[in-house]
Amino acid sequence: MKKIMIKDMPNHIGETVKIGTWLANKRSSGKLAFLQLRDGSGFAQGVVVKEEVGEELFAVAKGMTQETSMYVIGEVKADERSSFGAELNVTGIEVISPAKDYPITPKEHGTEFLMDNRHLWLRSRKQHAIMKVRNEIIRATYEFFNENGFTKMDPPILTGSSPEGTSELFHTKYFDEDAFLSQSGQLYMEAAAMALGKVFSFGPTFRAEKSKTRRHLIEFWMIEPEMAFVEHDESLEVQEQYVSHIVQSVLKNCKLDLERLGRDTSKLENVKAPFPRISYDQAIEFLHEQGFDDIQWGDDFGAPHETAIANHYDKPVFITCYPIGIKPFYMQPHPERDDVVLCADLIAPEGYGEIIGGSERIYDYELMKSRLEEHNLSMDAYAWYLDLCKQGAVPHSGFGLGLERTVAWISGTEHIRESIPFPRLLNRLYP
Ligand code: 4AD
Ligand code: MG
């Protein structure tokens, strides 16, 4: 007998098959038991008919607890009501291990309770769908960059530098030295771009930020492309192409998952390059027109400001050329103004906030040296980075896309904590 996965059931109509499953839920009457089965690849209904299977097996089916693991044997039947067109007429059950007092029942549970049981919560339909969307974004990321001439390079996680400011670092001992967990692989990716031209990384990054918002994780995954001979405007074009590609890939390949999540896909269909661009100056002006008196030129945007700007558009929007004072040391100054830099943040629609931060990078040696000094960064730790400016430096640009914020936006998940398998939050290291 063939062992198959639930997702492949529609290809086995009429065949008797064996599937390794867990019992997600069940309902039964005196004659029939409906088993909601899941196997990781999908969810399907198994129907047990007492008259067909006999008293003994029917009693096993009726008595099984939620999340009991088993092999089920049965004939795959076409079924129009099922989301993917098949169900299983169960004729045999081999229980592997029963589950005891499974805590997450079909009733509503509080968030903290679910977070404490994250190791089990991942089995639920909604979490399954979010993880599928996450996986598709990762798959489409590799596809996009590989098709566009990028090479994947992996920056270190233990580092001696802090590209995004020194206040949000996780310190650790590195034998006799001090080290930090990487906030961003960018500086290493700049070195990599000088070796391989167009590169991208995908890895975990860490921010010891005491933020407790629906957009902040302590540990999150970032995709960081870096491109030699690419200037600011050209980088924005890559960004909008990339984001369009991942959104369109999810729409195409995660239909069932988006449906299960209740995602309004009409809001995603329109996400195709080009995206609108407004300058920081224009954004401030717009916010003042909208009655935001709390923000002045030179301030960074808060979530309500970003949301007000995003709500004005039906696609993600680039805010370009921020004041030099609120951005990191490495950003290239504007050629005609000394108060702003050549950078952009990409703000997602529907209030999901900034998903990309990027810029053109400084490559002039004297300017880089003075910027490092102004930011009180150690010339010893950054010697290798400064050295890049002396060895055939070229204009180059790059950006970082936060995976979890992107997952939250595309899947329509309110809080970022559900967009990563095991979130690290301000007050949570368990499980
Ligand atoms: O804007 P950020 O800090 O930019 C950088 O780290 C650059 N070095 C990237 C680069 O140019 N190579 O972070 C980039 C993105 C943000 O736009 C956001 O999507 C995400 O990373 N991000 C976070 N996501 C979740 N939790 C946090 N605490 C995040 N901080 C940043
Ligand atoms: Mg940023």
UniProtKB/TrEMBL annotation:
InterPro entries reported for this sequence: Aa-tRNA-synt_II (IPR004364), aa-tRNA-synth_II (IPR006195), aa-tRNA-synth_II/BPL/LPL (IPR045864), Asn-tRNA-ligase (IPR004522), Asp/Asn-tRNA-synth_IIb (IPR002312), NA-bd_OB-fold (IPR012340), NA-bd_OB_tRNA (IPR004365)
Pfam families according to UniProt: tRNA-synt_2 (PF00152), tRNA_anti-codon (PF01336)
GO MF annotations in UniProt: asparagine-tRNA ligase activity; ATP binding; catalytic activity, acting on a protein; nucleic acid binding; transferase activity
Domain of life: Bacteria
Keywords, ordered alphabetically: Aminoacyl-tRNA synthetase, ATP-binding, Cytoplasm, Ligase, Nucleotide-binding, Protein biosynthesis
Presence of the UniProt keyword Ligase in the record: yes
The protein's assembly and partners: Homodimer.
Family (UniProt): Belongs to the class-II aminoacyl-tRNA synthetase family.
Name of this chain's protein: Asparagine--tRNA ligase
Species the sequence originates in: Solibacillus silvestris (strain StLB046)
